[in-house]
Design brief:
- The protein is of the alpha/beta class.
- The protein folds into two domains: 271 residues, Rossmann fold; 187 residues, Rossmann fold (3-Layer(aba) Sandwich).
- The chain is 35% helix and 21% strand.
- It is built from 18 helices and 22 strands.
- The chain has a nine-stranded mixed beta sheet, sandwiched between helices.
- Helix 14 links the parallel strand 14 and strand 15.
- Helix 1 crosses helix 9, helix 4 packs across helix 5 and helix 5 packs across helix 6.
- The radius of gyration is 25 Å and the shape is globular.
- The mean pLDDT is 95.
- The structure holds glutamine.
- The site of glutamine has 10 residues, from strand 18.
- Glutamine binds next to strand 18.
């Protein structure tokens, strides 16, 4: 068995270059070579985790099976590689400082002055080496550092990488991702920002082994040669990441250019044959070969691509599985009214009602749920989306016009969505929801049961404080909305469905977090099938 190897991925010039996709792609390629891999993200902001961040700030909050609220890049890692990440795969400056400060308060430092170097950098190194979750069987740990080189706040992370590099020798490789802009007026691609970015990194004592150039146009060899010579790297270690029609083509492009092979050569591992990645290629062929098209409405309040990242990807992946190209139409729930709902949703094959928090936009979600129910349009409600399906049903079918969630209206008479008992005394907002995987028993014979391929027992990830109020369970069931998924320990309702409709399912959990490229989530597959054929 070989010692664990460490790959560090940093970014320069601008943010949003797709470091997460490159990290996930590299993970995939190393896995395809038979290595056991994990990927972790270090974010330089001071929040303990992104759980309290508005999606406008940071996109979706991704939840790991063990209940950590994390950066959305972990979603890419899981979708590309199928590995299950944990709380140890997502670290922020806030968590690093908190650990060090807690230790200082306990008196562990025995009177020493606590400083960024060495105390903060030592804690960063400890976590980069995964000392809290030692797994000797890991061949590769890929560490992505958020932010852009030169940021004041990422400096301690760079110092930690510099030190680790010295300590680990050939067992550490540094990959730096930069941007090569195209200047239209000059009709030229410019490498100067890359040169500056690498210089900045070198100034911090880190010589990158590999430079990945993000570009909207193909870079020819002379340009790559220029980067190699100015940045002190081998030509074969200058890789380009061109715009691709799909992010899932990035691993193939990286493999074609030998990114994984270059890393292995740096470390000194025999490269061997290039893996065929058959199932990945089959997926890509299916994705580009899909000729049928389908429109799905995504009803939510955040008009921002990244806000519902995992749901969007889950829909696309389930579409590919069903040989259909899914066109996702974002419909802002704040603008949905009884008057315009038909215009907005009638042309859609199906409707997804998104998760969320707070009052803004919920009435529109309720109108969308009603439209889908009364027009028998396949509809998938996730978390808050499921809660809105329940409220709509209570108002319209059970005849309780003031039915509501305690989250929106704490004084309502008919709190069909109530705060969970163990949430009542919670005052701290961060990391205190019902988070992570919980069990669910599915009623045999239900639509959901068949969607899961006849499984009675499942585990899914959660992120909520409110729940279906069991006092109303019987009334709902009698009127036709069935509680077909229930947690066996707490009796919390996890899944509702209306069996008389083609596909009308709401889940308190988030199936989108566990959908992967090679294993799209069964509920999304079933939903898309229903949108295609009527019933699944
Ligand atoms: N706001 C709701 C709750 O806390 C739903 C949360 C969500 O959609 N993730 O229960």
């Amino acid at each position: 068995m070989m010692d664990t190897k460490y790959v560090f991925i940093t970014g320069g010039v601008v943010s949003s270059l797709g470091k997460g996709i490159i990290s996930a792609s590299l993970g995939k390629l190393l896995q395809a070579r038979g290595f056991k891999v994990t990927i972790q993200k270090f974010d330089p902001y001071i929040n303990i985790d992104p759980g309290t961040l508005n999606p406008y700030e940071h996109g979706e909050c991704y939840v790991t099976a063990d209940g950590m609220e994390t950066d959305l890049d972990l979603g890419h890692y899981e979708r590309f590689t199928g590995i299950r990440t944990s709380r140890h795969n997502s670290i922020t400056t806030g968590r690093i400082y908190k650990t060090v400060i807690d230790r200082e308060r306990r008196g562990d430092y025995l009177g020493k002055t606590i400083q960024v170097v060495p105390h903060i950098t030592d804690e960063i190194k400890r976590r980069m080496l995964r000392e809290d979750e030692k797994d000797e069987s890991l061949d590769f740990v890929i560490t992505e550092v958020g932010g852009t080189i030169g940021d004041i706040e990422s400096a301690p992370f760079m110092e930690a990488i510099r030190q680790l590099r010295r300590q680990l020798g050939r067992d550490a490789v540094c990959v730096h991702l930069t941007y090569v802009p195209y200047l239209k007026a000059a009709d030229e691609l410019k490498t100067k920002p890359t040169q500056h970015s690498v210089k900045e990194l070198q100034g911090m004592g880190i010589q990158p082994d590999i430079v990945v150039l993000r570009t909207e146009r193909h870079l020819d060899d002379s340009l790559r040669m220029k980067v190699a010579s100015f940045c002190n790297v081998d030509l074969e270690c200058v890789v380009q990441s061109e715009d691709m029609p799909s992010i899932y083509e990035v691993p193939v492009s990286m493999q074609r250019q030998g990114l994984d092979a270059a890393i292995m050569r740096k470390i000194g591992i025999p490269v061997g044959e290039t893996p065929a990645m058959k199932s990945w290629h089959e997926f890509l062929a299916k994705q580009s070969g899909a000729t049928r098209k389908m429109k799905i409405a995504l009803v939510g309040k955040y008009d921002l691509q990244d806000a519902y990242k995992s749901i969007r990807e889950s829909l696309n992946l389930a579409g590919t599985f069903n040989d259909v190209k899914v066109n996702i139409n974002f419909v802002n729930s704040e603008g949905i009214t009884k008057e315009n709902v038909s215009d907005l949703l009638s042309g859609m094959a199906g409707v997804v009602i998104c998760p969320g928090f707070g009052q803004r936009g919920i009435e529109g979600k309720i109108v969308a749920a009603e439209y889908a129910r009364t027009h028998d349009k396949p509809c998938f409600g996730i978390c808050l989306g499921m809660q809105m399906m329940v409220i709509e049903f209570a108002r319209d079918v059970l005849g309780l016009p003031d039915a509501d969630s305690c989250e929106m209206n704490p004084d309502t008479q008919h709190n069909v969505i109530d705060i969970m008992e163990d949430q009542k005394n919670i005052t701290q907002m961060g990391g205190t929801m019902r988070l992570g995987e919980y069990s669910c028993l599915i009623r045999p014979g239900s639509r959901t049961f068949y969607a899961y391929g006849g499984k009675e027992f499942i585990r899914e990830r959660h992120r909520h404080r409110y729940e279906f109020n069991n006092r109303y369970r019987e009334a709902f069931e009698r009127a036709g909305m069935q509680c077909v998924g229930v947690n066996p320990d707490s009796d919390l309702v996890e899944i509702v469905e209306i069996p008389s409709l083609r596909w009308y399912v709401g889940t308190q959990f988030h199936p989108e977090y566990s959908s992967t490229v090679l294993n799209p989530h069964p509920l999304f597959i079933s939903f898309i099938k229903a949108c295609l054929y009527g019933t699944s």
